Amino acid sequence: xxxxxxxxxxxxxxxxxxxxxxxxxxxxxxxxxxxxxxxxxxxxxxxxxxxxxxxxxxxxxxxxxxxxxxxxxxxxxxxxxxxxxxxxxxxxxxxxxxxxxxxxxxxxxxxxxxxxxxxxxxxxxxxxxxxxxxxxxxxxxxxxxxxxxxxxxxxxxxxxxxxxxxxxxxxxxxxxxxxxxxxxxxxxxxxxxxxxxxxxxxxxxxxxxxxxxxxxxxxxxxxxxxxxxxxxxxxxxxxxxxxxxxxxxxxxxxxxxxxxxxxxxxxxxxxxxxxxxxxxxxxxxxxxxxxxxxxxxxxxxxxxxxxxxxxxxxxxxxxxxxxxxxxxxxxxxxxxxxxxxxxxxxxxxxxxxxxxxxxxxxxxxxxxxxxxxxxxxxxxxxxxxxxxxxxxxxxxxxxxxxxxxxxxxxxxxxxxxxxxxxxxxxxxxxxxxxxxxxxxxxxxxxxxxxxxxxxxxxxxxxxxxxxxxxxxxxxxxxxxxxxxxxxxxxxxxxxxxxx
Length: 499
Hints:
Layout: E1 4-6, E2 11-13, H1 22-35, E3 39-49, E4 52-61, E5 66-74, E6 79-80, H2 91-101, E7 104-105, E8 141-145, E9 157-163, E10 166-173, H3 181-187, H4 191-199, H5 206-221, H6 227-255, H7 259-280, H8 300-324, H9 328-334, H10 342-348, H11 353-356, H12 364-367, H13 373-376, H14 388-410, E11 430-437, E12 442-449, E13 455-461, H15 464-474, H16 483-490, H17 494-498
Parallel strand pairs: 6-7
Antiparallel strand pairs: 1-5, 2-11, 3-4, 4-5, 8-9, 9-10, 11-12, 12-13
Helix pairs in contact: 4-5, 5-6, 6-7, 6-14, 6-16, 7-8, 8-14
């Protein structure tokens, strides 16, 4: 067989990943995606392999909970046929491979820089001369927004082409913020340093990314986290989902000038993140999740305290939602604004809420379950209109769903495991992949070790990597005044994209 099959959080020898010629490689992986919408690319990346570049492609089959992994070795100066010309799911992955290694694609439709990373192959490609798409017309005009934004928001530039107030095209230029996260995973040698890096990938998804890193590390060490560890991680993930969704409901209300909703939802986020500080000492959950250990065990006392917080939070959250979703002026801004069709989200490979808003079921909690989600029998929240209203509805319903999951979990707090597993050295010459459903969607961390058991590659994919293009499609044919609400209804990450 020309590919190997793994499941979420499984470690295999790198030698177990079949290697093939490029033509067979492209036929295999683009062929996977023609079978059904249940299959999509969770990661496709390259890394130096002697004087060549080794490509590894990971295709998830959501119907079987399996991941098909295959590889190919190419030269950096090869002229290759593009995966993207056959299936647009691969568009951003191939642009990154081109940017990092100079691999050229003969028929890629949009071969532009992705990140302007410091280690990019062609240093002459600078952010100052980004090749924006342009339309020549006396009737059209361009509007630039950013990269500097008000407050503490991260940098990104939005270039609109408009006919009057109507948006015809939006190009989103990222690549302003880089910390060299992936390279630092290799350079830093202490586990605490690497865990802190994972916490810093995206500031609003600390639990999601640190859980993925912990699963990668534990799998590479050949250990399994105890039940109480996974219990704590599951609660923390759902609390992170509640906090961000609640805060984003506040932000959406701000963008439609609904001051009451902005104030109430903003207030309701506070007790959730304050509880995270009571639990682990940090409102954003930094320091809470650690590989191989339960740094801050979840106790019956914490369960009682959390139940009290939810009892106060829930009626106010439900009442504010009832007010919001009965308000004609709010509904007129939500409904049929920022629509992305099912065909488009499938074509561009969106994940998480940005897929589920248009009827595409992408949710790792059910398709590639981890932690305690198999016990919760998670049912994804699916909407079908692909507009701001669908995205806001998903946030509302996922908060209620998360509350129910948390109430079920804290009703039976497990005993703290007395013997934490010993984290030894990493398995040498190994490959591991971890998928976690963060509040935005599918997080993917991949790692490869060398013959001495040292990290040779650490690859991070935030769901924003998939979903920024969905925002660009959402605003087409909308008025430019609707951009803020479209943008906030996705709330994508600049830092998670730029790394």
